[in-house]
Specification:
The radius of gyration is 22 Å and the shape is flat. The chain is built from 17 helices and no strands. The protein has three domains: 67 residues; 106 residues; 87 residues. Helix 2 runs antiparallel to helix 3, helix 10 runs antiparallel to helix 11 and helix 13 crosses helix 15. The chain is mainly α and 287 residues long. The relative contact order is 0.07. The two termini are 27 Å apart. The longest helix has 20 residues.
Length: 287
Amino acid sequence: MAKFDLTHKLGQYLDRHLVFPLLEFLSAKQIYDETELLQGKLDILSKTNMLDYAIDIRKQLHPNAEVPEDLKIKRAQVVAELTELQNEVELVYKLMQNEEVMQTMETMRDPKVLLSHLTKEYDFKIDMMDNLVKFAKYRYECGNYSVSTSYLYFYMLIMPPTDKNYLNVLWGKLASEILVQNWDTALDDLNKLREFIDSNAFANPLQVLQQRTWLIHWSLFVFFNHAKGRDHIIEMFLYRPNYLNAIQTMCPHILRYLATAVVINRSRRNALNALKDLVKVIQQVQY
């Protein structure tokens, strides 16, 4: 069974935090040695700020060993930096806790009008957004995904798509929603990210292709967990030429998931046509 596993291929196109659910799945299936999987988790954790999780994994691997001093030091450093970043976004935090403010923000459609309102009424400053993005990213690296979603949502209410951080925020918001399993919101964020990628001019065509390839892989989490995901995967992978081209060019292994969706989604209107179109695509790739 292990020889058919695509985790290694998929992992090349995923944020490291998105690899954890895959490793948990493999652990439950017991197709790999558990020690290898634990070591894999530890290797990934070494590149994050999830120190408590890393310490727990080390204890499972080495139950009689002391926690390394460098891990204890790094943990203290992470807590200190987190506190410092938290202080830098204190005003934003207070605004987020104010229901009246959030309701106003959600009803104002024009970011410029909203920004003017926040500046006038609450002494808000636009340069706070850079600190907000740093804080949300740091929280994400600590594994506090739900906190990250809240701050990134605040950012997206205020900032225009032309902002330098906007694309990174879209990716971060999608990853965070996937990791907290908010599938409806994740689907909305997936669509926003796809629209942004498709409607913006990147430096070169290769960059667009890379963005679409990453989005294809990340979208698997959403499509195979959302109630209407099978319809969406067929529509996006099979009937959007740019994404079908990305699959054929960069990641034909994704056809396995598309085929699964087509086969199990027989109740879909035009299911037979989808199956025929899929066969044509597979034949083209084989050729």
